[in-house]
Write a structure and sequence with these properties.
This protein has about 350 residues and is of the alpha+beta class. It is about 45% helix and about 15% strand. About 40% of the residues are buried.
Length: about 350
């Protein structure tokens, strides 16, 4: 037997390819020529105009329909499914613009099934990117809900959604909370596998075999499961120096006052009703204006020019894992990420690449 765990996890459903090509456009030959972005926007309208029936309900807890047999089927499907559009988008943002030329635009008609809806949401997401149509909390939730309705609890899709959600203002709290749930299901499955042993692929039959009781153990572990590395990495340890702030974590608000320390995680929101000052162990005091909403995605915008220079110097001098400068940067990734990304585009350095991937959840 050989384990079938991968970074994504041991599970996740995928899209069986049941989509059909869209019929050729029959516009008059004298119609105005559309730009590439305009064509992608028109394709997006056509894809979203499809009536795929009511939106499936989602579960607030561990998915009850996910039993051992369903898990085996999902692993099999997931192993044959790749999010090539997500990969192209991520690599383009990191400076590999030529990948755009090799990505065929998704023009598909989708089946009225849960998998068909997931395919449609993935295609629509990619078309929004190609047409420079911004994502919203609603479109990101639609993608997440479609993946969960198809029992796709998958690290790759959830971390990709987060790279979009972190850029939205106001903070998309509903998306963060659903991502937290998504990651906790994945974590619970890992905890369940730690009890029963992992799913494996039989070397003789090539069939996926799930140890009896794995999903039941995962369901028991779910109430205490965290969001994995989205809770433990890419965080910011801060202190309230002056004023008061409200930390929103996993749907619960906590008032933090002067002298108290807090940990801002990648799925958290820090609300500042009146002007306040935060403290950081390396960068010192950080002024925050009234009405600010701080997330891991926008925290770097709070830094002064001098603090940005300090971050840049640390990045320029960091070595491998364990070096003083790198350890400092790892402890302030939300502050350092924009500079790390710029550094990677310029130098393609391994240190910058690994920290960039860590913050993005890859």
């Amino acid at each position: 037997m050989r384990p079938v765990f991968c970074m994504v996890l041991l599970l996740a459903a995928a899209c069986a390819s049941g989509s059909q090509p869209v019929a050729p456009d029959s516009s008059p030959t004298n119609a105005p020529v559309l730009s590439y972005e305009e064509q992608m926007a028109r394709d997006l309208e056509r894809v979203m105009a499809q009536d795929l029936g009511p939106v499936p309900a989602i579960t607030p807890g561990f998915p009850t329909q996910l039993d051992d047999a369903a898990l085996a089927e999902m692993i099999e499907r997931r192993l044959g499914f790749a999010f090539s559009a997500f990969y192209s988008e991520s690599e383009w943002k990191r400076g590999f613009s030529d990948l755009m030329e090799h990505q065929s635009p998704p023009q598909m008609r989708h089946e009225t099934t849960r998998l068909g809806r997931l395919e449609r949401e993935v295609d629509a997401h990619h078309l929004r990117w190609l047409s420079h149509t911004p994502e919203s909390a609603a479109t990101l939730l639609a993608l997440l809900h479609a993946s969960e309705a198809a029992l796709l609890y998958d690290w790759e899709i959830a971390s990709h959604v987060w790279t979009h959600a972190r850029e939205l203002q106001p903070a998309p709290v509903a998306v963060f909370e659903r991502l937290d749930h998504h990651f906790r299901v994945i974590r619970a499955l890992h905890l369940g596998a730690a009890v029963t042993g992992p799913a494996v692929r039989d070397n003789q039959t090539d069939a996926i075999e799930v140890p009896p009781g794995l999903t039941a153990a995962a369901a028991r572990a779910f109430p205490d499961a965290d969001a994995g590395s989205f809770d433990s990495e890419g965080t910011l340890a801060l202190t309230v120096v002056r004023g008061r702030v409200m930390l929103l974590h996993r749907g619960v608000e906590q008032l933090m006052t002067e002298g108290e320390g807090l940990l801002l995680r990648r799925l958290d929101v820090l609300r500042v009703p009146a002007a306040a000052t935060l403290g950081h162990a390396v960068l010192g005091e950080i002024a925050v204006p009234a009405g600010a909403e701080i997330t891991a995605g926008n925290a770097s915008g709070l830094l002064s020019p001098g603090q940005r220079d300090q971050v840049a110097r640390l990045i320029a001098t960091m070595g491998g894992p364990g070096s003083e400068a790198r350890t400092a940067i790892e402890a302030m990734l939300p502050f350092a990420y924009p500079r790390i990304l710029a550094e990677y585009k310029n130098s393609r350095g391994d240190s910058s690449r690994m920290l960039m991937y860590k913050f993005d959840g890859e």
